[in-house]
Amino acid sequence: MPEPGLYPRYAAPRLKEALADSPVVLIHGPRQCGKTTLARAVGDRLGYAYLTFDDDVVRASAEADPAGFVLDLPERVILDEVQRVPALFTAIKANVDRRRTSGRFLLTGSTNVLLVPRLADSLAGRMEVLRLHPLAQGELARHAPDFLYRLFSANFKTRQTERLGRELADRIVAGGYPAALQRTSGRRRSAWYRDYIDALVQRDVRNLARIASLDALPRLLTLVAGQTARLLNVTDLAAPFQLSRPTIRDYVTLLERVFLVDELTPWHNNRLSRLVKTPKVHIGDTGLAAALLGIDAAGLAADRTLLGQMLETFVFQELRRQSTAHDEPMTFSHYRDKDGVEVDIVVEQGPNAVAGVEVKASATVTSADFRGLRKLQEVSGKRFAGGVVLYDGETSASFGDGLYAVPVRALWDRS
What is the pLDDT of residue 270? Predict the structure, then answer.
């Protein structure tokens, strides 16, 4: 059982495996998502020392002499918020090359180093990277997920469950950040999310890039929140600002680097030329989006258009969070062709299995709602494993050929 106040993390078994055979392991993800808690929960049991670069003295020491700093470290060490001292990556590489010991360095970072080629390349072949997300609904329920297993085995039994209704909007606006979820009032959670954005922009984003319009980033993020689950439209995002489209595009990439925004790439097939090649944009957490938009659960439930968008982002983020529990990596994309046929989320497991997830905020499903999934099934051929329409209803039911209507609560409820 997890310690009181702590949640079991799907990434924990992967972290233990990585430490057993990799010299360097990096846990990266947004600030306050639980990276340090996970690193220390695992590392303390294995005898790791702990240092954080949020400590000004520790950071100044590492910046002054990166090589000497690394040489003086304990045998096994957690280095927290390592992105704050980029020069350390080269020093760690040199140390690993001299003496390759599994589990030597456990790093955490709030910046996606995979989007910084110089940093990513410096530890290529020496470092395993684990992505940690805010809490999944299954982690909050303290049980292992089985939705993706059922999706890829097309195994959803006909059954009745209770409709979520208003509870669905409550879950969406609550989000998944542990510190926010400790606050029982929706108003207080929103205040936490707003303070979080202000602190992140003033600290991490300022350190990442010298940009003239730092105050534009919270406003831009709010616009992205309003466009979540839509095709990325840089022109629309740039319209309220006296900034060029390339500048706004760079700012969106910057928000990606601190895990506030995700671009969902379009699914591709070499045999098809009519696929739309524009990515979708998703906010990194729906609680964050609700706070930015100033909307509570009642307001979200009343706005059916925004509810549909937020639910799609909620499902996408939940699936990504659950995927960290699986041995085989999964990749995510969206399907859309030039005839407007689309599938909200395409999940690929390895090279030979494709599944689709369509998301509806309504309480009913008809055969017409499977149009996109049937098209994906057709173009995927033998690779197609299964597809579901997730909706806020009561009944799991087959629509033939590995296609199912499934209540959205099946994402985290055990079958």
Answer: 63
Q: Quick one: pLDDT band at residue 4, thresholds 50, 70, 90?
A: very low
Measured CA distances, 242 to 36, 197, 217, 246, 396 (Å): 39, 22, 13, 12, 50
- Among 325, 281, 284, 317, smallest CA distance to 112 is for 284
The whole-angstrom separation of Cα 85 and Cα 410 is 42
How far is it, in rounded angstroms, from Cα 387 to Cα 354?
Answer: 9
Task: Say if residues 357 and 148 touch (Cβ distance below 8 Å).
Answer: no
Contact 79, 107 (CB under 8 A): yes
Which of 113, 144, 143 has its CA nearest to residue 128? 113
Nearest Cα to Cα of residue 312 among 350, 270, 361, 374? 361
Q: Where in the chain is the domain with CATH 3.40.50.300?
A: 12-131
- Residue 205 pLDDT: 76
Topology classification of domain 12-131: Rossmann fold (3.40.50)
CA 107 to chain centre: 19
Tell me the range of 58-72, 210-224, 237-251 where mean pLDDT is highest. Answer: 58-72
Residue 35 phi/psi, 5° resolution? -65, -50
Long-range (24+ apart) CB contacts under 8 A made by 10-13 are 10/136, 10/138, 10/139, 10/144, 10/145, 10/321, 10/322, 10/324, 10/325, 11/38, 11/130, 11/131, 11/132, 11/324, 11/325, 12/38, 12/41, 12/42, 13/325
Q: For the full predicted model, state whether its pTM sits above 0.85.
A: yes
User: 391 pairs with which residues across the strands?
Assistant: 407
Mean pLDDT, residues 197-219: 77
What single DSSP character describes residue 163?
-
Reported confidence tier of residue 210, pLDDT bands at 50, 70, 90? low
Rounded Cα distance between 71 and 51, Å, is 14
How is residue 111 written in tokens? 């910046």
**What does the pLDDT look like over 91-141, one tens digit per residue?**
999 999 999 999 999 999 988 866 665 666 677 788 999 999 999 999 998
**C-alpha dist (Å) from residue 211 to 201, 250, 334:** 11, 10, 32
